[in-house]
Amino acid sequence: MKVAINGCGIGGPALAWWLLHYGHEPVLIEEAPKLRQGGYIVDFWGIGYDVAEKMGLIPEIRNAGYQIEEVRFVDKHGHKSGGFNADVFGRMTHDRFTSARRADIGAALYGAVKDRAEVIFGDSVKAVRDDGSRVSLNFEHAPSRDFDLLIGADGLHSKVRQLVFGPETEFERFLGYRVAAFDVTGYPHRDELIYVSYAEPGRQVSRFSMRDDRTLFLFVFNDDVPDGRTPATDDERKSVLQGLFGKSGWECPQILDFMDGAESIYFDRVSQIRMTSWSKGRTALLGDAATAVSLLAGEGTGLAIAEAYVLAGELHRAAGDHAAAFARYEGTLMPFLQAKQESARKFAASFAPKTSTGIFIRDMSMNLMSLPWLADLLLGGSVRDDIKLPSYEAA
Ligand SMILES: Cc1cc2nc3c(=O)[nH]c(=O)nc-3n(C[C@H](O)[C@H](O)[C@H](O)COP(=O)(O)OP(=O)(O)OC[C@H]3O[C@@H](n4cnc5c(N)ncnc54)[C@H](O)[C@@H]3O)c2cc1C
């Protein structure tokens, strides 16, 4: 089958890999002019890790990644106020856990398909016509083309979802936080392999020292952005962050001074996508487009890769019956992913506590994570993937 995949982030190239594996012809369409670079760090484990291992990508991802040793909370003077030893994640996952830039995982996936699949950068699907036997696509720039299937792997604000399923407002569930991230070179404070976080009521900023003298900053804050709008330009983003963190303690003034050195600033709502079906006719959704779990789940990258594996596997097993494949894809994964979303929503209140007491309680409970049984109790439910992925090799 000839399969158009809109979006070359994580799920898109992973799906292309598995479609190639089964002898199909994927075409990746990415709106960015080149593969997105930089950006935030993600934790990577679970069923996505297992699938990446089947693809032979774990050495590359681990090489690009970081084995974080400590998560440290600090007060406004930079003194440690709580935290835990990050080996708790390694122990729970039998060392099948790493943290890496989302872009580096994307680059590993893209590198594994780029010489075997057509990839179109700087374009996007603009209109979709499904006549039952083919799906005809209009693009922003390229001439129209026909495909057997269209897959939307174009993230939280998916264009394919909007074109085929309806407006974002029908499916987005806002979790009450906004997130911003950027990275810079030459920031003077470094704590190698330690994720350092500072919180004030309703807002939190974290930094992580990376290779090549780079430092990543991640801001998470309650929804108090002026007029509730997501700022559209980097200048607007900077002024929102200045307004929110300009008078904050710890290194905040210095971090904001360095913000001008950032190539770009990521800024978005923290939201989930909830749908009752991920497919319609010859179109299906994948990854954040279908079922964003949000950064609070800390697993969206791995889940997008696992979804790609199941979707391609079911298409292979169904031997051309895409409707049957889409139904099995949803049936296999939807309850599991909804449980992941539920668990992330429960965690939302303690992520960036709204009061000083909440921050104190959060720090104290994190200190207790050095007790293995308590760590299991607090984190086990969200770290464990209660699902066994099907095997499709014999199909
Ligand atoms: C701050 C933050 C921290 C996170 N932390 C973690 C974590 O610790 N662990 C984890 O596993 N996950 C984490 N996530 C979630 C993770 O990044 C996503 O779940 C994952 O990237 C989803 O992959 P995807 O391929 O579905 O979408 P994306 O990675 O968003 O990729 C979508 C791609 O589609 C492209 N695109 C968008 N619109 C169009 C269009 N109209 N036409 C063509 N292309 C388009 C985009 O440019 C992008 O390349 C975090 C997310 C954020 C924001």
Explain what this protein looks like in three dimensions.
The chain is built from 13 helices and 18 strands. The protein is α/β, with parallel strands linked by helices. It has a single domain, classed as FAD/NAD(P)-binding domain (3-Layer(bba) Sandwich). A hairpin with a 4-residue loop joins strand 8 and strand 9 (135-139). It is globular. The model has no long low-confidence stretch (mean pLDDT 94). Residues 6-12, 29-32, 36, 40, 42-44, 102, 124, 153-155, 159, 179, 181, 218, 287-289, 295, 298-302, 304 line the site of flavin-adenine dinucleotide (FAD). Flavin-adenine dinucleotide (FAD) is lined by residues 6-12, 29-32, 36, 40, 42-44, 102, 124, 153-155, 159, 179, 181, 218, 287-289, 295, 298-302, 304.
Question: Helix proportion of residues, in percent?
Answer: 25-40%
Low-confidence stretches: none
Any idea of the CATH topology? FAD/NAD(P)-binding domain
CATH arch. level architecture: 3-Layer(bba) Sandwich
Mean pLDDT: 94
Largest sheet: 7 strands, mixed
The CATH homologous superfamily corresponds to: FAD/NAD(P)-binding domain
Indicate the radius of gyration in whole angstroms: 21 Å
Supply the CATH class.
Alpha Beta
Q: Give me the number of helical elements.
A: 13
Termini Cα gap: 17 Å
* Associated small molecules: flavin-adenine dinucleotide
Strand content: 25-35%
Shape: globular
**Count of distinct strands:** 18
Q: Strand order within the widest sheet?
A: 5-4-13-14-15-12-16
Per-chain topology:
Layout: E1 2-6, H1 11-21, E2 25-30, E3 41-45, H2 46-54, H3 58-64, E4 70-74, E5 80-85, H4 87-92, E6 97-101, H5 102-111, E7 118-121, E8 125-130, E9 135-139, E10 145-147, E11 149-152, H6 159-164, E12 172-185, E13 194-200, E14 203-209, E15 214-222, H7 234-245, H8 252-258, E16 266-273, E17 279-280, E18 283-285, H9 288-291, H10 300-318, H11 322-351, H12 356-367, H13 372-383
Parallel strand pairs: 1-2, 1-11, 2-7, 4-13, 11-18
Antiparallel strand pairs: 3-6, 4-5, 8-9, 9-10, 12-15, 12-16, 13-14, 14-15, 17-18
Helix pairs in contact: 1-10, 2-10, 10-11
The structure holds flavin-adenine dinucleotide (FAD).
Flavin-adenine dinucleotide is lined by residues 6-12, 29-32, 36, 40, 42-44, 102, 124, 153-155, 159, 179, 181, 218, 287-289, 295, 298-302, 304.
